[in-house]
Sequence to fold (578 residues):
Amino acid sequence: MQTTKFLFRHASFSSLLRQTTHKRSFSYTLRTMADYKLKSVTSLSLKPGDKQEVEVEGIDGAKVLLVNAGGTIQAIGPKCTHYGAPLVKGVLTTSGRLTCPWHGACFNAKTGDVEDAPALDVLPTFKVTERDGAVYISGDEATIKAGRRKPNFKCTSTGAAAQQDKVVVVGGGSGALGAVEGLRNGGYDGPLTVISSEGYLPIDRTKLSKALLTDVKTLQWRDEEFYKSGSVDWVADEVTDVDFSDRTVSTKNGAKIPYTKLILATGGTPRNLPLQGFKVLGNIFTLRTAHDTQKIVKAIGDKGKKIVVVGSSFIGMEVANATAKDNSVTVIGMEKVPLERVLGERVGAGIQKSLEKNGVKFYMSAGVDKAEPSPEDSSNVGAVYLKDGTKLDADLVILGVGVAPATEFLRENKVIRLEDDGSIKTNENFEVVGLKDVYAIGDIATYPYHGPGGNGRYTRIEHWNVAQNAGRAVAKNIINSAVKTPHFIPVFWSALGSQLRYCGNTVGGWDDIVLQGSVEESAFVAYYTSGETVVAMASMGKDPAMVQTAELMALGKMPSKSELAKGLDITTIGPLEA
Ligand SMILES: Cc1cc2nc3c(=O)[nH]c(=O)nc-3n(C[C@H](O)[C@H](O)[C@H](O)COP(=O)(O)OP(=O)(O)OC[C@H]3O[C@@H](n4cnc5c(N)ncnc54)[C@H](O)[C@@H]3O)c2cc1C
Ligand code: FES
Fold:
């Protein structure tokens, strides 16, 4: 059978590129540069690390962010290109690294380039001049208004690298996104193939459980044209094996795709419950893809349903929060309080209370016994029974009981050795241990963690940013193997009534929490400590405390537990010197 491709191969790009070039020269004629006055700014007196959001006169509603990035004073787009957070509330180091206050995206404030996930588009930069007691920026109206621009992704795949390398990425999620954009933006101009079984281009997976979105077009980051412009050969197929000696990837549709560098980024497979009823009854769902949300939303139908969520970690809690308004939602969890393993008992209890206020019911310290069919339709679930005999009526059940690394296709492989949990062990550069030119990133990778408290311990981290940053790091390594992989602090977020932010990692354990503020009021900062070292932190309603912590951790300048216990407000430290 033929491998299905939903993007064109290189041959068909030439006509497209001709059109694109034509379009570009046309748009350049429209994009005339002009000077625009900044409202109420009379001089440029920012010190390194200072930033100021200002209005642009003459362009309705337009703003820019004035920055002093390592001595360069200029203006840049004012909003994060991920979800639009105001960057004036973020953290700018004296050398010009600008971190978004919400989910940790980092931009180079000198060039506007993305340095860390999850943002993809670049910030435009504008030259500033001071004259006659006023300050002006030079730019074209459309770019100033948009406040963002696409990265340098275009590629005709005719460069020198085409003779040497052929990069194949397996997977079409966050890790793949980071690798593909990192490669093209970083100047890799050789052949680049992505093989993904998901059935659509990379989407914002994190939104699935927060809003149960179903429309792939709304969820996807980039359209087909974008990948075509970068000569990315996107193959819709499932990889079934890899011949690491021959350097070929085999697919379900019978293709054999050669590589010189292979990036494995296959993510996770949600677990089911090995209990009576769960594998046979309908209306029991896991949640990983837009196909899953489509099924869940269909089963919820006109709302007013009894939904039982099994699992009180992030996916379960987000789904409960997203569905509670219009349905009757019950969460079953094995821990004493939800999210206890990650956030601890005090924080978990506070979050439980805030979800209870939204109508979610909890059965905690509870074990599930079985699922029983519905009396009206014996093919569908009708109730979930707990081990103590409690019966919870259910029109549908959503399982949030963890994921296993999606590496089944390598289980029988004679060359690669999977870890006990099915993951793949890598070094700091995400190169698979014992294999040359093969990388593993994202949810499947067990890698040595060097953040605070990590001491190189191996861990597997299921975060959107970790997968994407690992993809970016691999891209850098492929382009220039002499470049040391940048060390990044893991960041994740969740929507639980209020926005939860988290950074760091507890692979080395934690023994205490320093809590500032009130969890019940969704305004707190919790520092997870091991001895005097802060190894992780969680916050709600205290931006930019999380990203400030992540930056301080990355710089090795995080205050000690004792200092924080005395009430030190992390956001008062600065400007950070990097
Ligand atoms: C509902 C949900 C909400 C989340 N919310 C957050 C959040 O708010 N913040 C956060 O930090 N993290 C969140 N996460 C976790 C985050 O999405 C993952 O850590 C991240 O997607 C991992 O990226 P990845 O590239 O490793 O895997 P994925 O993004 O899962 O991508 C894996 C890709 O590989 C493909 N694939 C698998 N097997 C094969 C094969 N054999 N052949 C070809 N293709 C294959 C899959 O179809 C998929 O396209 C969430 C996860 C889920 C499921
Ligand atoms: S809005 Fe900036 S990282 Fe998400």
